[in-house]
Structure prediction request, 220 residues.
Amino acid sequence: MDVILEAETGRTTGSRDASRLRKAGRIPAVVYGKGEPATLLSVDWPDLRKALTTEAGTNAVLRLRYGGNETLAMVRELQRHPVRWDVLHVDFVSIDRNVEIEVEVPIVLTGEAEEVSRAGGLVDQSLYHLAIYALPGAIPNELEVDISGLEVGSTLTVADITLPDGVRTEVEDDEPVASGQITRAAEEAEAEEAAEGEEGEGEAAADGEGGDDAADADEG
Prediction:
């Protein structure tokens, strides 16, 4: 379901005017795409936050209304403050329901990697978002990867992600998504066990040699 977002036109450029808008609770924005010239906008921050906190997140399909116009749009970029993480500016791109668009979708790991846990390892996720192409109405909220069969030393790749109908990706199939890794603590414990085993074997061998010497002495 599309999310309606009201915007206002008529803002001017410049850091001073942008700062004034933010103090008033509005976020400077721009909308472009479909061959139309870019239009400067501003949106109410609570309305924008509400629009982007649905299950679709920043991939929500918006019915952006401004200056008597309405266009189907999505967020192309959110510019944030490097420290406070406040939204400073938002870029909207106009889209067409019948034309696929490229977006990044979160990757979620499901299941329990029991073999990895038994080995004292951990699951290392290396890819958190996948770039996909889909029609606006077919964009999934997330993509799941089952890690139940993962073992230490094995890797799940993009090829292991089941894409919904109408969704494709140009990312290589062998791109790693998650792998089973041994932890340093587990490696150290394994090394200690190996060292203890070797020490025990050495003591047993020494005892054996001592017994042979004693037997030889008795025979003498």
Observations:
- The mean pLDDT is 87.
- The CA atoms of residues 128 and 184 lie 24 Å apart.
